[in-house]
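Structure request: alpha-L-fucosidase, Mytilus edulis.
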Amino acid sequence: MAIHWLLILICCIGLHFSNAKYTPDWESLDSRPLPKWYDETKFGIFITWGVFAVPSFSSEWFWPHWKSKHPNHDIVNFMKRNYRPDFTYADFAADFTAEFFDPDEWADIFKASGAGYLVFTTKHGGGFPNWPSSHSFNWNAKSVGPNRDIVGDLAEAIRNRTDIKFGTYYCLSEWFNPLYLKDRDSNFTTTDFVKTKAMPDLYELVSKYKPEIVWADTVDNLGPASYWTSKEFLAWLYNESPVKDTVVTNDRWCDECFCKHGGFKTCSDRFNPGVLQKFKWENCMTIDTHSWGYRRNSNIDAYLSVHDIISTFASTISCGGNMLMNVGPTKEGKIMPIFEERLRQFGQWLKVNGEGVYSTVPWSHQKDTVTKNIWYTKRKMESEGTVVYAFLLSWPTDALLNLGAPIPSQQTEVSMLGYPDKFIWKAGPGGQGIHVTIPIIPWNKLPCEWAWVLKLTHISN
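Returned structure:
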């Protein structure tokens, strides 16, 4: 009888593994198709929030820049002027109060931005989880500071009030965790940190909050996949997790992974190559050009204008990327007005021009061959054939706009998204290119303020 049940058990185990679609090796994991929703949404919001929002000085790397072998003298002097001599970074946690954190308010702002997904910092390099982690006793947002499950509260608001996909950022390594430092100093031959902290955290995050994006990162780009057990985690994520069919991941799972392995590629912060890539990629960038976290001492010239943001976005999606735009809340949990303004302005622009953005694909040309500051996307439509969208980042200086890349057909029509009338056009020499007559449009009739999108139907190339 015992042998009989043993055989059944072996058969069941074999059946389980034979049904596993992806195995823990890069060839198998990298073969997984990226879920369609990610490419179609084009735009997401990144939220960098944690204990570093308390000093809100310099950047979210405040702690290592304060306590490294070669400290930042501005930070050292800042601490000497404002805090007692024995003050530690851990002491900041009590002042991470989040008393104005209203997840419903955040959700409404993000919805207004036109974003399709959100990536929220669950744990940064300081090791402070924004949820009641079972593997971080008394050093998490439920035990000290906000005294609430920030991740859970925000996930609930996003899902109840919007159709935005909720995702999580998780920093695998930690600047000063003794277990991590021990493993790193052993050249990752010991595995105490990854077994007791990093991977248990990740499995808990996915099982509890069911994020549609699992965005991994490291503070030092060190550690092989064999140390992080990245391939084993991704195989579980794709085969067995609650989000196995819809989840997307990035490429920061080990020291050799960047721009090579995982889901979409980030390659580096603010990656924006300006040319079409062979893989799906993401431009993770910041509105505050100097920091991901909130800075109390920032100046207005540190923030991208909405025109800067749209220009970055147009070049990104034209080359096949998504844009993940970061904002950093205050320690009280407020998204400062300048961030909110940029998000709402960008959302206003997307309401007019979303047809040229959502669910489009790169065209044969990414930017125009004749006129500068024009980027392209395209889509196929039954009634209008190949439709090309030309993003004009500056208003034409002449009444005649020359587009060198499109080859028109007799059925081609030219219009501007958000504007009711068709534009007059004629083909360029030899049928190559389109010369568009730009009508005189009163400023109060323009569909948007910052950049304009021409729609070209029935394009031959």
